[in-house]
Every structure is written in structure tokens, then in C-alpha cells.
Design brief:
about 180 residues, mainly alpha, elongated
């Protein structure tokens, strides 16, 4: 999964060496052209936006060198103010707080990537949430409506979708001697 995430959206638009080793952070930052002074400035901007625990998770993540490279490019092109505007979107993003703690770092990486790849003037997108069609949800529901139609009694059993109902045992089901 790490390779898939690292070589997918995180690297779009970046010039990434083929032999990049994210396991060696210092070497990865050097390969990506992020010097230590620039790195310290980037971490400082992230600290201005996120709580300390989230900063530690984000900067300590395996994908951090790729994010730092993207931030360094934004800072070089538009200055610290532009990078700060991108990172400010992380304050409104709740993806680092919602969900299981075991996936917090991954959600922070995703939220940071979203904030860096979306123009600062665009409205902030909610954390990656799947859009659900209400009609599709109702068609798959196993619960019954709270109230029955007028003049009818509400069913006492939970509704079972037609594809899950068993009408009769399948022919030849069971063992024969």
C-alpha cells in the first residue's frame, strides 16, 4: 500500500527519482532537492497550522519527503505566504481527528496533499467522504420504515433484500450416500 500511495497522487507533477528510498528520510529529502534549512522552514509553517501531535504524525510519516518536496516547490514559486495559505486549509479539515487512530497519519497525509494541490482560493473540500445515493441506500436497507402506509399494519420482521432471501433449499443441497 505504501508504494501505491507514494507513486500515485503524491507524486503527480513532481520530478521524482526512480531510486527514491522513502525509508531513508535524509537521503530522500536530498534526492528531492529539499535542503535542511528549507525543511526547517516548512516544518515551522506546518507547526503554525496543526496541533503538535498531528505535526509529529505528519512529519514522521513515510510520505513526508514527498509532501515536503511539494511544499518546497510551492514556497519557491509563491513564497511562504502562498504555502501558508495552502496549509491554512488544514485547520478546517477534520480528517486528522475523525476515524480510528491507527489511520490518523494516512488521513493527515491525504488532507495535506489535498490542501497543497487545491488552489487556496477554492472552497475547502470536506474530508474524503464517499457520496451515497439515497435511493441506492434505501434499496439495500434491511430495515423497515417506521410507519406503515395508512390502513396497513407495520411488518414485525426486518426486511430482507430479495437477493438474500432463500425461497427453498437448492436442488441437490445436502449430502447423499
Amino acid at each position: 500500500m505504501d508504494a501505491k500511495r507514494s507513486w500515485g497522487p503524491l507524486t503527480e507533477g513532481l520530478n521524482v527519482p526512480r531510486d527514491l528510498d522513502l525509508g531513508d528520510r535524509a537521503k530522500a529529502l536530498e534526492q528531492l532537492g529539499v535542503n535542511w534549512l528549507g525543511h526547517a522552514a516548512i516544518v515551522g509553517l506546518v507547526k503554525d497550522v496543526l496541533p503538535e501531535t498531528q505535526v509529529g504524525l505528519l512529519v514522521g510519516s513515510r510520505q513526508w519527503p514527498l509532501l515536503a518536496h511539494r511544499m518546497d516547490r510551492i514556497r519557491d514559486e509563491g513564497g511562504p505566504a502562498l504555502l501558508g495559505a495552502h496549509l491554512a486549509r488544514l485547520q478546517a479539515d477534520t480528517s486528522g481527528k475523525d476515524g480510528p487512530t491507527s489511520t490518523t497519519a494516512g488521513r493527515l497525509v491525504d488532507a495535506t496533499l489535498r490542501s497543497l494541490t487545491t488552489p487556496p482560493s477554492a472552497p475547502a473540500a470536506p474530508a474524503s467522504r464517499v457520496r451515497v445515493s439515497p435511493a441506492a441506500a434505501r434499496s439495500r436497507s434491511t430495515t423497515t420504515p417506521a410507519a406503515a402506509a395508512p390502513g396497513q399494519q407495520a411488518p414485525t420482521e426486518a426486511a430482507i433484500p430479495a437477493h438474500r432471501q432463500q425461497a427453498a433449499p437448492a436442488k441437490g443441497a445436502g449430502r447423499r450416500r
